[in-house]
UniProtKB/TrEMBL annotation:
It is found in: Cytoplasm, Cytoskeleton. GO terms for cellular component: cytoplasm; cytoskeleton. InterPro entries: DBL_dom_sf, DH_dom, FYVE_RhoGEF_PH, PH-like_dom_sf, PH_domain, SOS1_NGEF_PH. The gene is Fgd2_0. Residues 222-304 form the PH domain. It comes from Motacilla alba (White wagtail). Transmembrane segments: none annotated. Residues 5-193 form the DH domain. This is FGD2 protein.
Amino acid sequence: MQEPEEKKIALELLETEQAYVNRLHLLDQVFYTELMKEAKTGKTVPEEVVKMIFSNISSIYQFHAEFFLPELQKRMEDWNRNPRIGDVIQKLAPFLKMYGEYVKNFDKAVELITAWSEKSPPFQELIADIQKRKVCANLTLQHHMLEPVQRIPRYELLLKDYVRKLPPQSPDRGDAEKALEMIFMVAKHSNAAIAEMERLQNLWVVYQRLGLEDDIVDPSNELIKEGPIQKISTRNNSTSEKYLFLFNNMLLYCVPKVIQVGAEFQVHLRMDVGGMKVRELKDAEFPHTFLVSGKQRTLELQAR
């Protein structure tokens, strides 16, 4: 007799979870533990660096090894009597929020591994030594570290498939649909954390290019657009190269610096977006021109 489709997916969930717990064991009990032991001798890297690289991997490992995997195993052994996994996944979903921290830290962790491998040959040697072991399957530490980042999307796909294959009258339908919704919310939470981190990083880079002026640096600002522009001087009918940064609350009118030490631009004028007006001009001599007028002053600009 052929296994029902939903059972096949539930078994796939169990098998991938088993493999995943092995990977987490490798990250937490092998890489993290051994690097930490070496760090304590003071010969490789500071302990703080090792902690920063592995973030909260220990909590993630313990949760999956001691709670989620055993629950799934029990459920699958009892499948013929009680064919359901929706309720177990509902218990899992809230804990997946702790992935937010790991995922947010991931790029930083990879940068730290690269930087300290160059700075500290013993650190690099220890990682290379662990990577040679059979358990690593010829894959790098960075590759193994990517696994938790990809795990939540994997749950989402498997559970979507599971819900699709469930017979309409299945006793697991209600629970499985609710579980899918919860996993979807967690995935969104994790993606939002990454997007917010990227926004702040990009914003910080822009602030550095502007010379970190106190009255401009504000983490809640949002950069909308930036680019070169020509300023038209009506006095002598000429143009000069300028640069604009448009934020949600202000327009920065800047001059590129000739000697770029530190900042790339000098802010000449800051205009509030509130009350600002933009009007296109019809000028045969200077095409694509427009006027920007704000409380502070009016500029005549030409786009490319």
